[in-house]
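Tutorial, part two.
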Amino acid sequence: MASSFNPLDNPRSAKIALWGGITFSLAFTALIWWAGQRLASTSHLPDQGAAWYYWRLATPTFWSHFTAWTFYALHQITLWSLIFYAQTRVKKYSNGLHPVNLVALGANVFFILLHFLQTHIWYDGLAQDVSIFSSQGSVILMLVAILLMENKRRGLFWGKKVPMGKRVLSFVRKYHGYLFAWATVYTFWYHPMENTVGHLIGFFYMFLLLLQGSLFLTRIHTNKYWMIVQEVTVAVHGTLVAIMQGNGIWPMFAFGFAGIFILTQMHGLSLPRWLKWVFTGLFIGGALLVYYSRGWVQLNEILRIPLIEYLLVFVLAGLVALGIWIADRFRRQPAPAAVLISEK
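Running the prediction step on this input gives:
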């Protein structure tokens, strides 16, 4: 008797979700660009420097605060709940989509549409109440956690693995979904859906991350080529935003993130050795060309982002290890001795 068709074993459903999600991301980014023209009359306070986030209302209202934080909380709780359900009920990976993946995809589409409407009615995101560095920091933490998790597969420095401890890696792998969902949803609701180049690229990146987060427990979620897209897109975003701002530090982002690709990320792609050296040569040649005219004294810019991220990998690993050690100490404490009270 022929076996019945099992949609969980059909990789086509996951591929359709992936490419459909990418198409949706491009289309919705185009919608943000087109509709953003009507936001041109929004009143902002004057720009006050690098630590200032310009795209927020000059005179916020109760509803601008309430809708931003309420919709953010609903989106956050929804994704965390779906991740918890998947880990406790579904548990296993499949070639195709689980029903919970469809729910996650639908939920993210709903909240993307909701954020679009919220921007055009009340405008403000979370930026009105929290620092721009909290949004940037959440994404950096996510990228650092990826470097830590992928150390076992591709190594950290030129394909060489760094000892991290099995329990540390196991903990980060098990709970990374909650961290990534927070980083993505928090950043997503931080910004209004403006149509500047920086916002458009940023929201497209967030859409890709939300798509990846919806495909948990599927084989395509761990596809090395799809995963690398999540990591290198931040380089494009950071570089173009720096160019747009005209602050002259775009090489720090371009060569900083490219340096991480050369040192770490490309070694998880099964590339032939000659191609790795081609990428390395292009990186070195591009840096020499740029800093010949920029000035050799500025060459330290290349090191800033890699040094920060690699340092944070060890800090994160150390914090997780410390947390595990503390939890073990509490579990190993002997129960208090019973006190016997004799009656007289």
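The first helix runs from residue 11 to 35. In part three we will examine how such features are distributed along the chain.
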